[in-house]
Amino acid sequence: MALEQFNLEGQVAIVTGAGRGVGKGIAGVLAEAGASVVATARTSSEVDQTVREIERSGGKGIALTADALVRADSERVVDTAVARFGRIDILVNNVGGAAFAPFLNLTDEQLRVTFDRCVTSAFMMSQLAVPHMLEVGRGSIVNISSGVGRFGVRGFVSYCVAKAGLESLTRAMAQELAPKVRVNAISLGTFMTPGLRSGMAALRGWEDRLNELTPLRRIGDVADVGRLTVYLCTRDCYATSATFQLDGGIEKSNFPTSLPDL
């Protein structure tokens, strides 16, 4: 009986930034749970691969090439989801981006673009998807955040500000869209993604240092983000306006390198 609550059969999920890393992991787990997944990304080859893997595992999905910062692209994603599957139940706003720059070198444009990728994209997709959730009578939005929005990291001012903004957007939307649509965020720590794997290959000892600075002494698996997402999308989930920390227990940055004092 308990496991039946996690069956998402018949539900339709949109996952942005699903071409690789965390977004790909979430899309795969949602499909395993029975949802039909509309996977989006800017790179066609990557999002196509995500859906091929979903289908090989017996799931259902479609791949759409789209830029989450372009409203016309987001409108096309929502319209295609409804035309293909008839409804929208779940939206995972995973798109983001970080600009690494010391505070005194950070440009207005870097700050603006990072905020748009993390916050404006989630706002636009949610605004377009929610009317269809209201037609269904319920829905769940999950915003993918980061611990940097809570404790800050040197060199990532724009990313810290943007993720804090995303969590604030989560709370504000949750209050306004209740009771039919629930809105939650997942604040991530360090997860094994292609980008992280590339960084560890380039910097000797980085993986050991990351593990050492994480209380659970290991790097997260992206499928675990998917499993928490499934819970947040179950119909009887009582959570809204919440930010769930999925970070191995970190209370400060576990980034192995840091900028020197000014």
Automatic annotation (TrEMBL):
Swiss-Prot/TrEMBL keywords: Cell wall, Oxidoreductase, Secreted
One annotated GO biological process: monocarboxylic acid metabolic process
InterPro entries hit by this protein: NAD(P)-bd_dom_sf, Sc_DH/Rdtase_CS, SDR, SDR_fam
Pfam families xrefs: adh_short_C2
Superkingdom of origin: Bacteria
Compartmental location: Secreted, Cell wall
GO molecular function: 3-oxoacyl-[acyl-carrier-protein] reductase (NADPH) activity
Chief place of localization: secreted
Enzymatic reactions: a (3R)-hydroxyacyl-[ACP] + NADP(+) = a 3-oxoacyl-[ACP] + NADPH + H(+)
Family: Belongs to the short-chain dehydrogenases/reductases (SDR) family.
PANTHER family on file: 3-OXOACYL-(ACYL-CARRIER-PROTEIN) REDUCTASE, 3-OXOACYL-[ACYL-CARRIER-PROTEIN] REDUCTASE FABG
Name of the protein: 3-oxoacyl-[acyl-carrier-protein] reductase MabA
Species name: Mycobacterium paraffinicum
